[in-house]
Write a structure and sequence with these properties.
The chain contains 14 helices and no strands. The protein has 325 residues and is an all-alpha fold. The radius of gyration is 19 Å and the shape is globular.
Length: 325
């Protein structure tokens, strides 16, 4: 029983509880306006912390191993979006239009950092390479994700020129400020990891509650039924399976060492919930955020379960090879 409890992702449980609370107790009126202000502050704070924590030097050094890290970026920002576009061919009678757009949105996001590195370590891969790949993916995602949303989702979600200014103020400015102040602030942030993690997750929970609260007021649950959710789960599994297969084959074709193939597999197959939810509040219409982040929340849990199993089996099956220099 203790092992089961220890393996529960309590952050995901908290996210689900936030959805439930928002469904029964959505905020309205002036309270909703106050919550929107709090969300803007929370998103800015999150991206400021991302800027502080991301090691700029390591991200720049990634250019030296351009084949490995270029492959991770290509899978993250080219292969994934192509799969997201393919999902749009599914009839709306099977998956509602907004959920399909949510599936496309999740494919435009950067990779995770923490789980990518953790699973690479468990699988006995190139941990240093995973740190660089995941960091560089998130650094690139601050710019590439908004561009991809504008190009692939712009017409569907009403992305406008005004949104560019919002992105600059709420995402890029705090991120750049964090990078500039990293030299002085990073030691304190890293020394108080538990506090900053709680702040991170609390901010994401606030954003999720706000998004679903707004969606409930606008009738989100009248457009989503159990069948639609099941269809989204199936599509998330298919997308993940295709990416895992593709990265596995690509690593072998490019002649990567086993350690680097693990990096490509683990970093290339992830999508960041922590970055995705705040980005959604900035890039997507408020009325659509709740339903469009639902596929991301589902995919996040699936990728953790599947990749945890794969990483454990890979770690048990073989000794790591030395990484390429």
């Amino acid at each position: 029983m203790r092992r089961v409890v220890a393996r529960v992702d309590w952050f995901v449980v908290s996210l689900l509880l936030a959805v439930v609370v928002a469904s029964f107790f959505p905020v309205r009126g002036q309270a909703a306006e106050g919550l929107e202000v709090a969300v803007v502050v929370a998103v800015g704070w999150l991206f400021f912390l991302y800027g502080v924590r991301l090691p700029t030097k390591e991200a720049v050094d990634a250019l030296r191993d351009w084949r490995l890290h270029g492959s991770v970026l290509a899978v993250t920002f080219i292969v994934f979006p192509l799969l997201g576009l393919a999902v749009q061919l599914v009839p709306s009678s099977v998956v509602p239009h907004d959920l399909k757009l949510g599936l496309l949105f999740l494919t435009l996001l950067p990779s995770t950092v923490q789980s990518s590195i953790a699973f690479t370590s468990i699988a006995r891969g190139n941990v240093a390479g995973a740190v660089v790949a995941a960091s560089f993916s998130n650094l690139a995602g601050v710019v590439l994700t908004p561009l991809l949303v504008a190009g692939l989702l712009g017409g569907a979600v009403g992305f406008s020129v005004d949104s560019i200014g919002t992105i600059g103020l709420q995402l890029l400015a705090p991120f750049v400020a964090g990078q500039l102040l990293r030299r002085w602030i990073a030691p304190w942030v890293l020394a108080h990891k538990r506090l900053t993690t709680l702040t991170d997750r609390g901010s994401v929970l606030l954003v999720v509650y706000s998004a679903f609260s707004h969606g409930v007021v606008d009738g989100i649950w009248t457009t989503v039924d159990v069948g639609s959710v099941v269809a989204v789960v199936v599509l998330c599994c298919v997308v993940l399976a295709v990416v895992l297969t593709f990265t596995s084959v690509l690593g072998k074709k490019l002649g990567f060492s086993r350690a680097d193939r693990v990096v490509l597999l683990m970093c290339g197959s992830k999508k960041s919930l922590a970055s995705g939810v705040p980005m959604a509040t900035v890039l997507l219409p408020a009325a659509s955020v709740g339903i469009m982040v639902l596929p991301l929340m589902i995919f996040h849990q699936i990728q953790l379960i599947v990749c945890a199993v794969i990483a454990r089996r890979m770690g048990d099956a073989a000794e790591p090879e030395p990484a390429r220099t």
